[in-house]
Amino acid sequence: MDYSNCMISIVSCIAEVVLAVCAIVALVQLRISKEQLQRQKEEFSVNSHRDAIKAAIEQIHYYSIEIIPSYNDLCKKIKEKDITFFDENSLIMENGKIDTTNLSVKELDIEKIKTVLTEFGDVSNKMENFAICITSGVADQEFAFNALSDVFCSEVERFLPFYAMLQEKDSNSSEDIPATLLLYQKWKDRIKLKKLQQEQRKIEEELQKIMKK
User: Fold this and answer.
1) What is the DSSP letter of 49?
2) Which of 5, 31, 139, 167 lies in disulfide reach of 55, CB 3.0 to 4.6 Å?
């Protein structure tokens, strides 16, 4: 009996040890799985960011070799055709809508603009493709902003009068706004904020100099 009880006790202890080991192994495997999952997420994040940077570089290259030359050719033709419509109408865009209060369109303007519609369509389509790629998140917007925001905004701003003519009177929702104008509005606001922050820093530096005197 004593021997039997002893064996039962030993077997019971072994079973407890086995269960404990199994539990420990399970916990270790679970931790490893979590670590692997975390690494996969981090790798995916890094790869996604890398792909977005790569796409941004491609878009910057595309803008340089496709859009800027087409834009310059359009401006040259506008000058040759003596189209003053774009210079005479300096418009602003706020809250996703172009302010057309001061827009002045003459019949002669319309006739002259018709002569550059093909070129304008080419430029605007290329800019729209670029803007869609940036606003959709396919390309890294921060990278593109640092490289092209000034150029992009100045070029879109030049042709705001044309976009204003195309803008429907009841187009108030962002769904009706081209990606070009959405990106312009966003980058224009960022440029303005950046300038204000620079001015603020200069004022703070001047104040510090005065206070130290």
Assistant:
1) H
2) 139
